[in-house]
Amino acid sequence: MKAMSWSKMKTAVSLLLIMMMVVLAACGANTDTNKSAGNTNSQTEQGATVSPSPEATPDSSKEAGETAYPYEVTDATGTVLTFEKAPSAIVTLVPSETETIFAIGAGTAVVGVDQWSNYPEEAAAISKIGDMATNIEAVTALNPDLILASSSMNVDAITKLRELGLNVYASNPKTYDEVVAKVEEIGKIMNMQAGAAEVANHMRQVKEQVTTAVKDAEKKKVYLEFSPGWTVGSGEFLDELLTLAGGINISAAQSGWFEVNAEEVITQNPQIIIYPDFGEEKSSIVAGIEARPGWDAIDAVKNNQMFSVTNDPLVRVGPRLADGLLELAKAIHPELVK
Fold this sequence. Notes:
It is a single chain. The chain has two domains: about 1-205, Rossmann fold (3-Layer(aba) Sandwich); about 205-330, Nitrogenase molybdenum iron protein domain (Rossmann fold, 3-Layer(aba) Sandwich), CATH 3.40.50.1980. The chain is about 40% helix and about 15% strand. It has 13 helices and 13 strands. β6 (about 145-150), α5 and β7 (about 170) form a beta-alpha-beta unit.
């Protein structure tokens, strides 16, 4: 019973996060930078000085230098932050930032994380500072000298924390390469450039592995349903991942995140359907697909080419996005990507 309850809770949380992304996208991503508005997945690096770095060499981590302080950076909200030294007490407001800070080797400096930071395992023992509604008092009680946030998912919290004089670095990576650049930038802030370079290099290597494997392959028509009744179009990082993985997003004619047009999907007739695994006993997405009139005639349904992929790595703009890309590629081109 407990396991079933946890599974249902994870499903509800995943759906809540995804629907928040959709609502934010509907409100518009190009609002004024002081409000930090936009969509976690449809965001632009407005005002950010971070940009995709050139391809790293395999030994780039060995060549990574030391950060010279004071170190100044402009984040995705256009806010300039100056660090006199490497931060030693970090709070993360979203799981992607928790994963990033641990991946570069700075996990021991983390003093607070959001409730849904479930990776790596060490995050479970760290003080919790709320869920999607950040507990401002809990954050300030930890005396952080760096708070890592999403400039779209944490809009209100960022404003309140900055009013209290706290250092908030907010990011908005929209593409795979921008996620890599974010990892490297956080490495510079933390003076953990070697660790960040290892992570960034791994992400680049996975991208190269996938794109090389599928470059001459047939581009298969793919339908992605990331939440029951919702899909993603052009201009979003999931659309880019599908393309990198050797697929053609059948929803790319429309931009952003939107409700499924059932008739249009039938017309497009995808060869493959991909959906996230929410840990449900019976996928609510699959149940919806099976109940839609006419969808039994779609090639992907007829040929049993519907595949679930691990949810968290695919939707968190952190180091494990490489795992999400690789899993997508294996689903689309299993004969080419091992």
